Amino acid sequence: MLTASHLGFRYAGIPVLHDVNLRAEPAAMLAVTGPNGSGKSTLLHLLAGVAQPAEGTVTRDPGIRVALLPQRTADIDALPLTVTECVRIGRFTPWRLPSRRDRAVVTALMERLDIAHLARRRLRELSGGQRQRTLIAQTFAQDAGVYILDEPTAALDTGSRHRVHELLTERVRDGAAIIMASHDDEESALADHTVRLAAPESSSVDPRGQA
Ligand SMILES: Nc1ncnc2c1ncn2[C@@H]1O[C@H](COP(=O)(O)OP(=O)(O)O)[C@@H](O)[C@H]1O
Ligand SMILES: [Mg+2]
Predict the structure, then answer these.
(1) Protein residue whose Cα sits closest to atom 3 of ligand 1
(2) Which pLDDT tens digit goes with each residue over 80-122?
(3) Domains of the chain, start order
(4) Buried b (16+ CB within 10 A) or exposed e, 129-153
(5) Is ligand 1 within 6 A of the CB of residue 38?
C-alpha cells in the first residue's frame, strides 16, 4: 500500500533520518518506535506526504487515501470548531452534502470515544485527553486505506487507550494499513512489524533500551 525506500531527511542540514526502509501492508499494523528526537514524527510526515524526503522515495498505491493524525495539533485551537464539527471534517467531501451514513459514522465514533456528551463544546475548552479523543474520532471518520497516527494514545487514560486499540484492531481486520508511532512497548506489541529508529546522534542514550 505504501513503501518507503532509503529515506533520508535533514532539518537545515542536520540529519534526522538515514536509509529508512519500510512497507505498510493491507490488514497489518506497523509500529514506529525510538526515543524522543529519533525522527518518528518526521518519518510519519514523509510517509503522509506533508514533507518531502531529502533522499529516497515514498510510493503509495494509486488511489490510496491516507489519513494522518499528527502529534502536534495546537494550531487547530485557533478555529472556533465544536467537537461535532471537528469530527465531521473527517468525512468532508467537497462535491456533496453529508449523507445519512456520514452522520451515522460521526455519531458512532463520538459514542465509542466517549465524547458524545461534549458535542457542542469548543476544542479549546476540552481537557488534553478529550481533545485528543476528538482528533482520533476525526481521523477514524475518514475512509482511508492507510492510517498514520503519531503517538495517538500518549495523553489518554487506560480506558480510552483500550478503546482506541480496539478501533485500530478493527480497522486492520477490515483491511486497512496502520502506521503508528509509539514509545510504549505494550502498545507497539500490538503491531505486526516494528521499525525502530536510533537515538539522535548527539545523544549518548543506547537506542536499544529506549523503544
Ligand atoms: N521543524 C523542525 N526544525 C528543526 N529541527 C526539527 C524540526 N522538527 C524536528 N526537529 C528535530 O528533528 C529531530 C527529530 O524530531 P522528531 O521527528 O519530532 O522526533 P520524535 O518524533 O521521534 O520525537 C529532533 O532532533 C528535533 O529536534
Ligand atoms: Mg514525535
Answers:
(1) 11
(2) 999 999 999 999 988 889 899 999 999 999 999 999 999 999 9
(3) 2-201 (3.40.50.300)
(4) bbbbbbbbbbbbbbebbbbbbbbbb
(5) yes
